[in-house]
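Minutes, project check-in
Item: structure for the 486-residue chain
Input as provided by the requester:
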Amino acid sequence: MYTRLTCALLAFYFSATSAVQPIKVQGSDFVNSVTNERFQIIGVAYQPGGSAGFNPGSGIDPLSNGTNCLRDAAIMQTLGVNTIRVYNLDPSINHDDCASIFNTVGIYMLLDVNSPLPGQSLDSGDPSGTYDSSYLSRIFGVVEAFKDYPNTLGFFGGNEVINTVSNAGTVPPYLRAVTRDLKNYIGKHSTRSIPVGYSAADVRDVLFDTWEYLQCAMNGTTNDMSRIDFFGLNSYSWCGSATFETSGYNVLVAGFSNTTVPVFFSEYGCNKVLPRVFDEVQTLYGPLMTPVMSGGLVYEYSQEVSDFGLVILNDNTTASLRIDYDNLQSQFNMLNITLLESGNSTATSLTPPVCTSNLISESTFYSRFNIPDVPPGGQSLIDNGIKNPNNGKLVSVVNDNVPMPVYSTGGAVIQGLAIKPLANDQSNTPNGQNTSGSATQSASSSGTSATASPSASTTKKGAAERMQVESMMGLAVAAVAALWYI
């Protein structure tokens, strides 16, 4: 009887930490590793506080506070998001609560391994001087911190490192070197393959050369470790009531038409016309683009000084939706998810082109494929692992309800806001919700309304509320009570 109860409790525990299925790359598509359904990124960039708010040693980064992540995951789940991109992370701190919360609601994570701090990214002006073992230790630390979460979709090995015609003449081989090192490290220290890619600036003179240089295979096969697994593009060319043609999206589709890796917008959402109406969503996820593109991530979730935010995160931890959120939700709700998840046998069986200088069209772009050797000390890190890695793991999410008020665009409190756990093989999808429409006018002691000052801050780690396990155990006991007398 005791053994039977223990097994039932363990079964409950593991169901409480049920995981999304990892995403893999097949040809030019992302694919669910179990269902084999195509995975289209419907995402947002997530960096509360902006890059200026990144402060290693503080114990805080965007994925360090479970209470804040619970709030944001609930807001994103009703929005219809299935992926977040997080730029600046501290690999030394605990991310278990946040990663587990996003996992529970079917939201994947695309993670940048670099940061804006000195020595934590390749310098566009000095790639050879910044590609060293200290830098590798940093990026391998991010891998260690997130490799064991099943909802880690992939890692960006670089973001806009090539951003001018000039540095396109020196940077490219170092991007392939970083990709190689990350993939080799993952191969030795992770229980599964995790895609590694690049996020490009929309500099049209070198954009397609960058993609060609990074997606080709020097040995002609997909097992070239220096070859990217996916290609992201930060594009803001669709502004206001643009069209497929006036935005230049037609040029992008034509340019990437023979891609052998997934291509998607790693950032999009021009803010030159406000409020944003996100008309591009129907085109991005429509028949003109889905044969080539794999979705995109709207920039960005939280309102920062650059004025791209969907949500205002107030200093007292409450949140206020902006009209951009409502507009984006309306666009997502019109998507045909069944069609988006349909597989394409041709797209998943593509062979990459062999790397050759003939792929490169810009005369000043680096067109040789002599990839730099691993820097001194780097191979030891790859072979033996970094010292004292901080390995994340899924934990039980024992609280579904958002504890702080969240306000609609009209200033009313949204009632009953909570995360809704999904089954193991499910990712989150738009579901027709109108989040602002579920709000009711309520007197609030917080004194915060939807027009609150758009200052964003995160709660200090020492003040973060720790989720309690009593409710989970109570549910567990109830779930197995019938077994007691068997």
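Outcome recorded: The mean pLDDT is 88.
No further action items on this chain.
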